[in-house]
Amino acid sequence: MNTVGWVILFFIVADYWVHLLADGLNLKAMTDTIPPAFETIYDPGNYRQSQDYLRTQTRFGRTVATADLMVLLVFWLGGGFAMLDGWTQGLGWGPLATGLVYIGAVVGMKTLFDQPFSIYATFVIEERFGFNRSTPATWIKDRLKGLGLAIALGGPLLLGILAFFQYAGDTAWLWCWLLVTLFGLAVQFVAPAWIMPLFNRFEPLEEGPLKSSIMDYARSIGFSLDNVQVMDGSRRSAKSNAFFTGFGRHRRIVLFDTLIDSHTTDELVAVLAHEMGHCKLRHILKMMTAGILQTGVLLYLMSLVIGSPQLSAAFYVPEPATHSGLIFFGLLYAPVDFLLGLASQSISRRHEYAADRFAATTTGHPRSLIDALKKLSVHNLSNLSPHPWYVFLNYSHPPVLARIAALEEIGNA
Length: 413
Prior knowledge:
mainly alpha; 2 domains; globular; transmembrane; Zincin-like; protease; metalloendopeptidase activity; CAXX_Prtase_1; four-stranded mixed β-sheet
């Protein structure tokens, strides 16, 4: 193995141990004492269940991470990338077809390897804690639909990237950046109407006090909203959530049906006020712009090394090629992606605080959002006392107790 290979190996193993350490600290941060803010809604039995859920998820996550690392190392150090490259090159097809087969094989093998873990997580862990509502038939259909979308959408995108890097010379990264950006924007527009309904049923929120309250609030802040959609999240999980998706006339605010069943009208308005706050404060636009810029940086750096003999040699592949270079660069880029991810999550946490403030001040009822956050945390068995290092590495949202404290300051102001 050459120097490039040792550098990549070091960062892959370091990333594994950094997250393993964070897992251990997170478990040690658990306390048997229910936080005062939750004493009135969390009984000791359910609180112990939430801690058991965290332990189970952490142990399972460690198992998956260890298995992923071991398989990658065995495949890499055992010459798997080189053997796969030799097989695909031996087909005698052109560079684009060869690239599609090579990358498709790598992704396909990884996907097949992941399925037993997904089955265990859904039908053992989530079932044990009362969350799973998915049937084996639904699970299989979801995977087949996901595979179909990956082929139908990801295939042409990958083909375009391979073609530009193969034939466009020094400007390939610019053309790829344009292609990926347009593709991402197009998916954002069509996903609410065409893609998401493949997996879930969306119905307009029925007429009544809840819809009237939501629409009145939206008008009060100048938020254009034709309707609120209710998603049948209960088909797959008992967990609750709400989210915002799409742009312009295609944007949707979506409530899980499980959320409606367990919250008051004021709490639901507060939750949606938070989601509308992300839009009004331009968080979605800012994060999308940052993502586009990050993609441009990634593609430029890729263009510098994708044909490097040293990078190919690090994986025991004798001749550099565009398709293998894409895979190898993904592993080389991991440390940069890790650091950018930390920055992105830090910004996201600040955005969550800002959206909370927006909801609290525009509704005039911080307590409603506090109550909603408490109920969501209890219902989803969320960890109430995560370790700060774990939060720094993994959380896109602030811990719920920190959010509640910030909202209480607003209410006391």
